[in-house]
Write a structure and sequence with these properties.
two-stranded antiparallel sheet; 13 helices; single chain; alpha/beta; 2 domains; about 40% helix; binds S-adenosylmethionine; Rossmann fold
Length: about 325
């Protein structure tokens, strides 16, 4: 059906069917048409989950407002090149739907690997564990971990107040009890639980990387994407903050004047997302950082990469460190 015919049908008061609408959009956009996205948009507007509904009900009539809404959304997707998640204002992560808008990064599939790693480290319902998600964004990591490990104490932090608003909204919508706080990375945070996981998907795209399409990322917040120094500036700053805190904690935990150990051990796992190309450099820099820190002699800090622990898997996009204060 031509665009004119479709317009005529609406004007004449006849409603377009599902198949009319899809055909009209295909004719309108020709080579630019995105059939899958068009179907997903229509499903969203009709509040149906499964695309097969569209084939099974191709003669179902759309109301003028459904048709206009779907047409407007497809225009945003194709003409404005807005990511589908922002058009639909939702993105699935680890089997749950998160609300997203331009205040937060769209959750990526590779970040689901961090959830698997944390679940493997904790290996229980989270009892006695504290999890801190630094740079929580939509709270896809914090909310998912709270729902997967319900007994864990989960904190979500971000520097962006706009992201925190969205994070809180998602946690509430999905029924996850999380404490959110505005911080610059780990600043003012403490290693105050015996067993902790600090998980972070920080910005790690260097603005100078010419192989990353800026057009694809234009709708996402810059604070969520870009970091200087080969994309590692925020990751390294976070690690330095954590290690400095560990050093201070070790001094407190150390031996008293009589030489008796004051406090039991504390273990922190640090689970970070990064680009596979950054791993080698991070390895090198981490060795330098630990060497340069003054650990003091009141406690022993064992800093090692978890990849040496046979039971843990890491994905291409994740690196895990373990800090033990004993
Ligand atoms: C790559 S996004 C990740 C969002 C979410 N965790 C995810 O995995 O989809 C990075 C997040 O870190 C936040 N961020 C950037 N710099 C930060 C800083 N210095 N301190 C705390 N959060 C920061 C951004 O606002 C953004 O929400």
């Amino acid at each position: 059906m031509s665009v004119n015919l479709a317009t005529k049908i609406i004007k004449n008061g006849r409603h377009m069917t599902i198949s009319d609408w899809l055909k009209t959009q295909k004719d309108k956009y020709k080579k630019e048409f995105l059939p899958l996205d068009a179907e997903l948009i229509l499903c969203f507007v009709l509040s149906v989950e499964d695309r097969s509904y569209l084939t099974l009900h191709e003669d179902q009539k759309l109301t003028p407002s459904q048709s206009a809404r779907a047409t407007g959304m497809l225009e945003q997707r194709i003409k404005d090149k807005m990511p589908l998640a922002y058009v639909l204002q939702e993105k699935e992560f680890y089997g749950r739907k998160f609300y997203v808008d331009s205040s937060v990064l769209i959750p990526r599939p590779e970040t689901e690997g961090l959830i698997d790693i944390v679940k493997e480290i904790i290996g229980s319902d989270g009892n006695d564990w504290k999890i801190v998600d630094i740079g929580t964004g939509s709270s896809c990591i914090a909310t998912t971990l709270k729902l997967e490990l319900p007994k864990a104490d989960v904190i979500g932090t971000d520097i962006s107040p706009f992201a925190l608003k969205t994070a809180k909204m998602n946690a509430k919508k999905l029924g996850a009890k999380i404490t959110f706080t505005k911080t610059d990375l780990f600043e003012q945070m403490t290693l105050d639980a015996k067993k902790m996981v600090i998980v972070a998907n920080l910005p790690y795209v260097d603005p100078k990387w010419d192989w990353v399409s800026k057009e694809n990322l234009q709708y996402e917040p810059e604070v969520a994407l870009y970091a200087e120094d080969g994309g590692l500036s925020e990751i390294l700053r976070l690690l330095f903050q954590i290690l400095t805190t560990a050093e201070a904690t070790a001094k407190v935990f150390g031996k008293d004047n009589a030489g008796t150990k004051r406090n039991p051990r504390q273990t922190t796992y640090v689970v970070l997302e990064l680009d596979p190309s950054q791993k080698a450099r991070l390895d090198k820099l981490m060795t330098m950082n630990t060497d340069n820190l003054d650990w003091g002699d009141s406690a022993v800090i064992d800093f090692q990469k978890i990849k040496n622990l046979a039971s843990l898997k890491t994905t291409d996009y994740a690196v895990v460190f373990k800090i033990s204060i004993i």
